[in-house]
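User: Could you go from structure to sequence for me? I need the amino acid at each position, not a summary. Structure tokens:
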């Protein structure tokens, strides 16, 4: 991701965000991941957001949007997310083809890489390493992060930092092998600033709320299949598809939660031994 687009959100007391992650859409509608129809589950998650969220200022699509990087999957993702009638900031995950994703989902100026939201700045980082499952930011992304934190600090803004891979251990050996490789450098940058309020990611297909040095750490369930927390080896979880909502408040505080699709039967192969 080379282009940087700053999108200005409406100023208000709070910014209302929705994160939908790891949609894993297949090339053909109705394609399944571990037995689950990922179009069917995303359709229900989108409807849930529409029912539950009165106002959405920005949607975050935090990677693994397509399961195999197909153009058709990105076109359908665009259609699903458009139903929320809000700007979408996308970033790639390990399953995505960043070039195809950009061709379909980015504007002429590229992906949205940072959002100016009045009291808040939202910074999007690319942790994808082409051909690899695990994540790494690299010097360019870390510099982009620092530049934006400097600008935010100068403007008196609070910061939300978003990426695909987890920068901290989740407590599952198999997926913690895929942590952001240069996480020490990442946190060294964050630690130089007082304006960082939250780091948010996808990839792990499970919910986490934690904290490090006063900065909130959050991960979010997939809009399709889930992984069982604290499992040494790959293990599916029977939790339903979901999304995260966030209210970024003017004083720097954050209200957030995860909502899941209840009352709908989703087929899934809970005995799978892995697909990554
Ligand atoms: Fe994923």
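Assistant: Here is the amino acid at each position, in order:
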């Amino acid at each position: 991701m080379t282009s940087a687009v700053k999108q200005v959100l409406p100023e208000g007391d709070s910014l209302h965000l929705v994160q939908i992650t790891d949609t894993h859409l297949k090339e053909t509608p109705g394609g399944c991941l571990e037995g689950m129809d990922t179009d069917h589950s995303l359709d229900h998650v989108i409807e849930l957001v529409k029912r539950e969220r009165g106002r959405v200022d920005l949607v975050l699509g935090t990677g693994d949007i397509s399961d195999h990087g197909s153009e058709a999957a990105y076109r359908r993702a665009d259609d699903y997310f458009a139903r929320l009638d809000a700007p979408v900031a996308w970033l790639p995950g390990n399953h995505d083809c960043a070039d195809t994703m950009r061709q379909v989902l980015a504007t002429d100026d590229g992906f949205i890489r940072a959002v100016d939201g009045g009291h808040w700045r939202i910074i999007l980082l690319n942790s994808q390493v082409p051909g690899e499952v695990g994540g790494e930011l690299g010097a360019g992304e870390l510099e982009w992060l620092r530049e934006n934190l400097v600008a935010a600090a100068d403007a008196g803004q609070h910061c939300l930092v978003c990426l695909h891979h987890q920068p901290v251990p989740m407590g599952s050996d198999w997926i913690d092998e895929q942590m952001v490789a240069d996480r020490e450098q990442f946190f060294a940058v964050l630690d130089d600033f007082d304006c960082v309020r939250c780091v948010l990611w996808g990839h792990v297909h499970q919910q986490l709320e934690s904290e490090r040095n006063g900065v909130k750490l959050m991960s979010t369930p997939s809009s399709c299949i889930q992984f069982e927390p604290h499992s040494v080896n790959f293990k599916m979880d029977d939790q339903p598809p979901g999304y995260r909502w966030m209210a970024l408040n003017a004083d720097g505080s954050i209200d957030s939660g995860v909502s899941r699709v209840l009352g709908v039967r989703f087929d899934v192969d809970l005995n799978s031994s892995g697909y990554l």
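One structural detail worth keeping in mind: The CA atoms of residues 148 and 154 lie 10 Å apart.
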